[in-house]
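fwd from M.: "can u put these together and see what the complex looks like"

so here's what she sent:
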Amino acid sequence: MTFAERMLHIDRRIIFLVIGVCTLVPLLYPVGLAIKVSPEVRSVHDHIESLPEGSVFLLSLDFDPASKPELYPQAVALLRHAFQKNLRVIGMTLWVTGAGMADQVITQMARDLGKENGKDYVFLGWSPGVGSLIITMGQDLYKAFPSDYYNQPTKELAVLKGVQNLRDVNYVVSLAAGTAGIETWYVFGKDKYKFELGGGCTGVIAPGLYPLLRSGQINGLIGGLRGAAEYEVLIGKKGRAVAGMDAQSATHFAIIVLVILCNVFYLSIRASRGKADPR
Amino acid sequence: MIFLRRQLPLLITFVMGLVFAAQYYVPHPASEQLLTTVNKWIQIIGGFALVLGVTSLFHLHAVKIRRKEAGWGYSFVLYAGLLGTIAVGLWANGKEAVNGALTAFGWMYSYMMVPLQGTMFAILAFFIASAAYRSFRARSREAAVLLVAAVIVMMGRVPLGEYLVPISGDFSQWILNVLNTSVRRAILIGISLGAVALSLKIIFGIERAYLGGGKE
């Protein structure tokens, strides 16, 4: 077996070790490279920035703990921005397994920024139906959620004063790890009830949402940890996402180097054997 | 019996399909009220579907345990986890926190489910790296194009890439905005046309697979 062949069949544990080191070292010793803000993230930020005080902002945290590393920092940054702007915040989730985490992030951010439950924000929790739930919210919010996550009757909440259905919501952002998520909010919600819609998503599903972005069906898109880091830069409060960008830089480059090396070995073997495809 | 098993479901599907396709274009209050009511029904039926799903899961794994099929130990773990969570959830009245303090149910969620799911997802990074090394090879011209595009996007999406090759960020955005969007849009249009065709086939009773098998 030649050197190139040996390298092509390298023990996968060595690759695991490389990725582990590339993740860990930048987290322990951050470099803090500059983060350029993309237009799609700036659109979400600018829209929230343009809303007058007291506007209604609905944040749908449509993810479960598996996507926490990417979407939790997005939620933190968006909630911080919305609370700082004194918007009325409605939180909810379309994912039953995400309800506890969504409640934690909203409660924590509200506490940090001195906001009061029922007056400045409400967490509606989860209800079955997905598309049907969104339609019901579009028809009558109180039929979809007669009570909030803490069993308070929603009709009596000051934060929902003047809000009858989704037409009364100024901006909806869905932070999605898949379906149900941004597309669901567009198809069953925005198309009929005409509210402005923005999105945040994991890096892996972001490319699939670009058609919605380019056609204006969503006005902005925060993609993955990078998107969260860009949002943190925009609101001037660097957090977990910015801290994680060095680690992401290092792992991306480790993978690029591994792929290049693998192809160098592959092509050298192919050249030595003529056109035969080495496995 | 044929009427209840075949004709009635086909009739309900036909009527509901046509009525709610038309409802979208009729903004009359009565039409909107109908939509609200029916959506509430769907939500309630969705709740029952959850019960049905859990019952089916219980049954499937009970059979595996009883027959001691391969991997029956995992089924036992599933049973223990499911019943344990239900019991603790009922005991905590479905609350994860009371006055800011975690209940047992909240503790299970925060210290078992969250780290377990997070770990599963995090492990993917290691497997993706390993898989990329083993399979991301320029075996053909098409594979080489894919490889180059992937490298550019990976570089352009991280600060280090933009720092080393400043144009990589803009190039990556162009790939996502132009090449990726046009192809995705074509796929989406295809899927949507397929969904419309399938919906029409179901509404008009041409496609009947959803009725299930069994005797007529």
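replying to her w this: Chain A has two domains: 3-30+245-272, 39-238.
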